User: Fold this.
Amino acid sequence: MINKKLLTVGSGLAVALSVAACNTDNLTNLNKNPNSPEDVPASTLFTTATVDAVGRWFGGYDLRATEFIVQHLAEVQYPDEDRYTRLTGGSTAGFFDNPYITHLEDWTKVIQKGEAANQAGIYAPALAMRTWSFSYLTNTWGDIPYFDALKGDQTGGSLAPKYDAQKDIYADLFVQLDKVSKDIAAAGANAGDLGSGDPIYGGNLTKWQRFANSLRARLALLLVNKDPATANTQLTAAFTAPGGLLQSNADNAELSWPGDGVYNNPWANFFSTRDDNRVSLALINLMKSLNDPRISLYAQPSPDDGTYKGAPNALTADKAAVYICCSSRITAQMFPGNTAYGFYGGTGNSFPSFLMTYAEVALIQAEAANRGLGGLTPAQAAAFYVAGVTASIEQWGGTAAQAAAYLTDPNVVYVAGTTGLVRIAQQKWLALYADGGTAWAEWRRTCVPYTISPGANASRANIPRRLQYSTTERSVNGANLTAAIAQQGADAFETRMYWDTNSAAAPTYPTTFTCGLRGSAPAP
Assistant:
């Protein structure tokens, strides 16, 4: 029966080919799928890639891994990720694998189209976004496929790309961001733009310059303990590049979700069917101790008594379940409202995802000024600090008056020296709520807040410094993975990547206890 079907299909195809041989147009038409466009417009590719990337880095990666590692959130049901038992290379494989076959590939096509047309307004935003996503990859795993990646469909390209050293990757990330800023400046009126296909800035190229320069500053500061000279050089370049940095909340790189049930904020989408996360004890306790006005913007009061209460991290399921009734859910701003398990208020489906904010940039400038880096001086640090804290409060819906009052608190007001660096880092951890990947990188660099350490029932005694490589790589790219492990170190949570190998040089690193070690750090 199977053979007869094959014969029938084969005979039909032979007839079609013999007829089509007399008409090459017909043969061409046979090879076209009318339901699949052969040339997707750059603007469509850019939109698709950007929505995919933001959904991934602020969705599963954030809510199944980094928000628990950095302890903005805690699990009160199914606490496997919070206890690190489901952070193995098999459980997190998709975080590593999928960017390469989705948004990174699509942005690369946009870059190719834009460069072929000599239109910086097309390729530069895609280059900035591709660099942004690669920064999450390398800051999570360290050495990754980079220079030879995304070339499997090119002549001479490989489907099993080698892994590159993080030091070399960072050097090229800076090159790419420099290109974004300068190429837009050089293109002028002939740059072209993505228009409505750009869901971040709507084709505003000046804002893309500011985003690229600000991302450059973020990455430069991550190098400051390992390679302070390069950090200083890159900070200076970022601060003086064409277009400048993000200058206010109006410049924030954000994706505003339609909230139509198809394209929702990733947090709201997650919480529409799951009720297993709460705001962490570490975050709630810190905000309470500082009288932080963002507490009502980040969390909802606990339903049992109307106060703000955090859940401890890394509890066993039976111990965690106690907090289901009696701890704070995430902010109503990011909550979906009507969920599968009840109505809890909120309009979160359309709440934006923040890729980079003016608040973060101002705090980067505050630290650079405190350290005398990037051409800034310590005398400038306080003004940048005030601007960053104020911007964060206003970004989340607070007021300038609330920020001004908050900044008079003795534990919040800026002071010079190492104490100032600790307060800058603390405010950055608070400002990076809902961007667990960046907050985790910053915590590894500064160890602030000091209270971050594995919970009592975590499967490991140390906060992870990286994630394990995807198990998929062992079967499809095993030789290169083995070489990467030999180069970087064991494929373990405790292995430190290039920029994290000298964290003890940070002025904020503690000397009286071991950073991130259970039982050593202060209790939250």
Summary: The longest helix spans residues 120-141. The chain has a mean pLDDT of 92. DSSP finds 21 helices and eight strands in the chain. Strands lie at 73-75, 144-145, 163-164, 253-255, 277-279, 338-339, 342-343, 353-356.
